[in-house]
Automatic annotation (TrEMBL):
The keyword Phosphoprotein does not apply. It comes from Streptomyces edwardsiae. It is found in: Cell membrane. It comes from the Bacteria. Residues 47-347 form the ABC transporter substrate-binding protein PnrA-like domain. The lineage of its organism: Bacteria, Bacillati, Actinomycetota, Actinomycetes, Kitasatosporales. This is BMP family ABC transporter substrate-binding protein.
Length: 349
């Protein structure tokens, strides 16, 4: 049952707050039921790149859609704006909470300060943040993942698939979160075949410079690595990863996607034959599970971590050339079992 302690808002106040919300980022709302409810359901505020990135943000939206369908309540999803401040982000979350949405999720580590501030103002609302583990509050769930573990398996796949003994890694922004992807990938490659060289590159030093939102930057970086003989390129770069995949397809080499199963993404369909696999983290499941915990009256809080053991990080198996390679699948399964069993300790930096 939904908690009766949720905040309710008078119609006039809701209307004015909706205007305030639109001033700091576009929003869309939808209702799965014509029945009026005293409170609302899940709301998410997108990270850089917004909905349509075929990756991180779209995975969060899938979780929202699942919650809306199952719980038949009103939801909201809000786009970021260029050059916004932490105060802008906090105002967006505050507006959602005031309107009665619960839980309210900030998608991406950039929401850390905003979630902390909004959670202090609305202690009866559950907040979530994806990809941050620094907020200590009774009403905040830190939805984090062992990205290094899935990246290790991506490294195994790359080392087993390269013919040139050179593979590449393209990180969106030079931050600790993306270091986890690089570290796991490099370790997986080296543990599988020490003679394989890994070329690594970060697109920008800050997210504001477009590291997660610039396909052209991703394409240029991948082309540079391919010129250096890389024939498998792994991107952990959000929307910029689309450029990496495009470059791989144009040069007839393998790309490894990230976050979502990019082989299945409609917007990338013309490149899918070049997508070997994707190192996935189930943001959709994490977002949905948080919504369900609130719906059930037992809101999740603290660090909520997904890894290989829980099944919330994994490698996609959609490309038949990948799925049908028995030797490759055996190597990946062996590595997975060793990681889960503790025999392999995957580095995160």
């Amino acid at each position: 049952m939904r908690r009766i302690s949720r905040i309710t808002v008078a119609g006039a106040a809701t209307a004015s707050l909706a205007l305030a919300l639109s001033a700091c980022g576009g929003t869309s709302t939808s209702s799965g039921s014509s029945e009026s409810k005293a409170d609302k359901g899940l709301a998410i505020a997108y990270d850089v790149g917004g909905k349509g990135d075929q990756s991180f943000n779209d995975a969060a939206y899938a979780g929202l859609e699942q919650a809306k369908k199952e719980f038949k309540y009103e939801t909201a999803d809000v786009e970021p704006t260029d050059g916004e401040t932490d105060a802008d982000k906090e105002q967006r979350l505050v507006s959602l909470a005031k309107q009665g949405y619960n839980p309210v999720v900030g998608v991406g580590y950039a929401y850390a300060a905003a979630v902390k501030g909004a959670a202090e103002k609305f202690p009866d609302t559950t907040f979530g943040i994806v990809d941050d583990a620094t907020i200590e509050a009774k009403n905040v769930a830190d939805l984090v993942f062992s990205e290094e573990q899935a990246s290790y398996l991506a490294g195994v796949a790359a080392a087993k698939s390269t013919k040139t003994d050179v593979v590449g890694f393209v990180g969106g922004v030079n931050i600790p979160l993306i270091h986890k992807f690089r570290a796991g990938f490099e370790q997986g490659v080296k543990d599988t075949d020490p003679k394989v060289k890994v070329i690594s590159q970060f697109l920008t030093q800050t997210a504001e410079e477009g590291g997660f939102s610039s396909p052209d930057k991703g394409k240029s970086a991948a082309e540079g690595q391919i010129e250096k003989k890389a024939d498998v390129v792994y991107a952990a770069a959000g929307l910029s990863g689309q450029g990496v995949i495009e470059a791989a397809a144009a040069n007839k080499v393998w790309a490894i996607g990230v976050d979502s199963d990019q082989y299945q993404q409609e917007a990338l369909a013309k490149y899918k034959d070049s997508i070997l696999t994707s190192a996935m983290k189930d943001v959709a499941k994490a977002v949905y599970n948080l919504a369900k915990s609130v719906e059930d009256g037992t809101p999740a809080t603290g660090i909520v971590k997904g890894d290989l053991k829980t099944g919330e990080v994994s490698l996609a198996n959609s490309n038949p050339k990948f799925a049908d390679d028995a030797e490759l699948q055996k190597a990946i399964e062996t590595a997975k079992e060793k990681i889960i069993g503790g025999e392999i300790k995957v580095k995160s930096s």
